[in-house]
Amino acid sequence: MLTMIVYYHCKSGMRNQFVNELAAKNIAALCQAEPGNVQYDYFLSQKDADTVLLLEKWESEEAQKVHLSTRNFEVLGTIKAQFVESVDIERFVTQ
User: Fold this and answer.
1) HSE on the CB side for 12, CA within 13 Å?
2) Cβ atoms < 10 Å from Cβ of 22
3) What pLDDT sits at residue 90?
4) CA 3 to CA 60: how far, in whole Å?
5) SS3 content of the chain, % helix, strand, coil (to 5)
6) What is the rounded CA–CA span in Å between residue 10 and residue 1?
7) Is the whole-model pTM more than 0.85?
8) 72 with 27: CB under 8 angstroms?
């Protein structure tokens, strides 16, 4: 199992626009429907008004790699380019 915590650090004051665009494009639901996805959920940081957390879990690293070549990931990249300043990722692999 691959678990990833993704920290999207939005451009100042743009977190709500980022979240709204993710919802408008139905990104979470589309990614949740991908083969091998176990969880794909967004959360708002209570400490930082410009940060969104993504918790994603995949059955395998291979399933997550396939995700990187999907249209869903491409659309997410376009959204990130508009609203996100930087991204930090924590990866955990378990059996």
Assistant:
1) 0
2) 20
3) 98
4) 9
5) 40, 35, 25
6) 28
7) yes
8) yes
